[in-house]
């Protein structure tokens, strides 16, 4: 909390408070990759080899372009250039545009976007799938 004009208290909110980084193998980006919950600080602190990006609702702006851009900005501040794989759960216009517009930066930061080339069929349902080996 900080004091704003006229000594009014203004609450500052961040999805992840500042602190040392946490290293994980696989992270599911919370809340359908909504920018209200995931920001640059998230990617500076939560470092993973694999990030799963869900969201297939363009009306709700999921996945959020701001979240995808935050990944690039946060990863640029890591000390190492470890390989990061982004796994979208759905094909979306936001994801396709982001991929095309930032492809060069993704390569510079050693980020790979994994497209699903497999389909799983369970009972009456089929959906794209990816195999991840940790």
UniProtKB/TrEMBL annotation:
InterPro entries: MAP1. One of its GO terms (molecular function) is microtubule binding. One of its GO terms (biological process) is axonogenesis. GO terms for cellular component: cytosol; dendrite; microtubule; microtubule associated complex; neuronal cell body; synapse. PANTHER family: MICROTUBULE-ASSOCIATED PROTEIN, MICROTUBULE-ASSOCIATED PROTEIN 1B. This is MAP1B protein. It comes from Baryphthengus martii. The gene is Map1b_1.
């Amino acid at each position: 909390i900080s004091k704003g004009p006229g000594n009014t208290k203004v609450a500052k909110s961040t999805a992840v408070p500042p602190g040392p980084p946490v290293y994980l193998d696989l992270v599911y980006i919370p809340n359908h990759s909504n920018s209200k919950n995931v920001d640059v600080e998230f990617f500076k602190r939560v470092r993973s080899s694999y990030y799963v990006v869900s969201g297939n609702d363009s009306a709700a702006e999921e996945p959020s372009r701001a979240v995808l851009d935050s990944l690039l900005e946060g990863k640029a501040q890591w000390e190492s250039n470890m390989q990061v794989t982004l796994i979208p759960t759905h094909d979306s216009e936001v994801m396709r545009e982001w991929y095309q517009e930032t492809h060069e930066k993704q390569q510079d930061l050693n980020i790979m976007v994994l497209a699903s080339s497999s389909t799983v069929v369970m009972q009456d349902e089929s959906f794209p799938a990816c195999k991840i080996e940790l």
